[in-house]
Amino acid sequence: MHQILTEAFALMRRRILASFALIIAVAMPVALGGVTLSIDLWLQPLVRGTTSRPTVEVLLRPGATGPAVQSWLHAQRASHPTWRFRPVPRQEMERRLGVWFPYLKPLLRRQPADLLPNMIEITSAHPRTVAALASDPIVLAVGPETSLGPVLRRFSSRLSWIVGAATAILLFSAALFAGIWVHLELFRHADEISIMRLVGATEPSVRGPFLVAVGLTGGLAGILACVSDAAMLRWLSTLLGSIGLPPLTGPLGVVVVQLLVATLIPLGVATFTLARHATLEIED
Questions:
Q1: Contacts of 183 by beta carbon, 8 Å cutoff, 6+ apart
Q2: Among residues 149, 63, 75, which one has the least CA distance to residue 112?
């Protein structure tokens, strides 16, 4: 094992520029995917349970009691049979406020239940017509034509698709780079490998230095990706904190996935390349 590690470090040292380039090539898509996944997880509490149809949020005055709210809903359903009304539960209101404005949580716990105004989500094929409800005495405010949840859902979905495609392309390029790197090293050491096999060297001893070198390179790429993610999330959290939003965090699961992807993809490509080389040499 000591001999394999020594030869692996020698490979990396002799090809230090290629090793560094491979680390960067693997770290970039892994870091990009990690940041995107962290943002997607940050948005999930806000987009979960929302609808993608045009929705307008209507706030009723805090003093409106339960019977008054039900009477108003009954009248609106009778006047607008094509609209769909959804009263937002207090727990969901608190959850939304807690996600975006965490400093309100202690206030919400201390205050009575009627502190928050009643919110009604109205889904309509013509959301602009809902704006007329602003003149109703019981209505405190009418939100924009499209609620925040669907906007965030579309943003999260499009971001995931775009960044996912870019990450897949970059990872494929990094895997191709790793395969070429191993192939060139095999070509440079072809005579030594042939002699080792002729004198009875086992395949693990022949392939070990290449696999360890690629595995270490992938591991370093994973560490670099995680460090880059932490720096990016910290910078984004500073921007979000300036407008009162909660910080972005890198969940442990995302870190583990990044390390595994950065290590296993180059390692898998190297294993395939070494196996292919051994098969061709045996056939020759």
A1: 273, 277
A2: 63
Angle between helices 16-47 and 203-242 (to 10 degrees): 50
Q: Which CATH architecture has domain 55-146?
A: 2-Layer Sandwich (3.30)
pTM: 0.62
Reported as a single tens digit per residue, the pLDDT across 69-119 is 899 999 999 999 989 898 888 777 777 666 656 666 676 666 655 567 788
One-letter identity of residue 105: K
Say if CB 254 and CB 41 are below 8 A apart.
Answer: yes
Q: Write the single-letter amino acid at 81.
A: P
Residue type, 11: L
Other C-beta atoms lying within 10 Å of the C-beta of residue 162 = 11
Going by C-alpha positions, the residue among 170, 217, 201, 214 that lies closest to residue 281 is 201
Instruction: Quote the tokens at residue 43.
Output: 């948005």
**Coil/strand/helix, residue 244:** coil
Domain boundaries, the chain: 2-48+150-283, 55-146
